[in-house]
Design brief:
By secondary structure, the protein is mainly beta. 7% of the residues lie in helices and 42% in strands. It is elongated, with a radius of gyration of 28 Å. The two termini are 47 Å apart.
């Protein structure tokens, strides 16, 4: 008998042997146990996973149609949408809008400003408008890690490459998926 198993005595003759470590069981048993676990996965509530607090979702929108001629990222007259007071963690940000242009070939761009970091094209959703008075729907998803002492702010900002760009039905969703 393996030294890792408790040897039966008169008082425990009918009890199950105790395994002291994983090396005390056969490879055949481990294979069978693995197969059993694959077919019968344990039902562990996500709240029992160490370090997990919760999934959180927040959303905001601005329906107003407003315009800009700026070729750098700016707030529109009604800024945002924005979300503030976001706790630190890893997020999936989804954002979008309906955009209209006044000049053929105009690029309509929407991005997010994270805390005091400027909005960037690397996070932007962009449309090349092929004709004047062209309407397009923009949408983008990006992941970000927020670490501003539990007081993070995300604001959508806008720019155009030329002419005038108008943006309406603007929306922003933040899904926190990890601490």
């Amino acid at each position: 008998m393996n030294d890792n198993l408790k040897k039966p005595t008169a008082e425990n003759a009918f009890s199950t042997p105790i395994v002291k470590d994983i090396f005390g069981v056969s490879a055949d048993f481990l294979g069978q146990f693995r197969t059993w676990l694959e077919q019968n996965p344990p039902a562990i509530p996500v709240s029992q996973i160490v370090g997990f607090s919760q999934f959180t979702a927040q959303a905001n929108s601005v329906a107003t149609r407003e315009s800009t001629i700026s070729t750098t990222y700016v707030n529109l007259t009604t800024a945002g949408p924005s979300l503030s007071g976001l706790p630190d963690g890893q997020y999936l940000f989804l954002f979008g809008c309906d955009a209209f242009n006044s000049v053929a070939g105009n690029q309509l761009t929407m991005s997010i400003k994270v805390n005091s970091t400027a909005a960037a094209d690397s996070d932007a959703t962009l449309a090349d408008a092929p004709a004047a008075t062209y309407k397009v729907c923009l949408m983008r998803a990006v992941t970000k890690t927020l670490a501003n002492g539990g007081n993070n702010t995300i604001t959508c900002q806008y720019r155009v490459s030329s002419g005038t760009g108008s943006f309406e039905n603007r929306w922003l969703i933040a899904l926190r998926f990890a601490n």
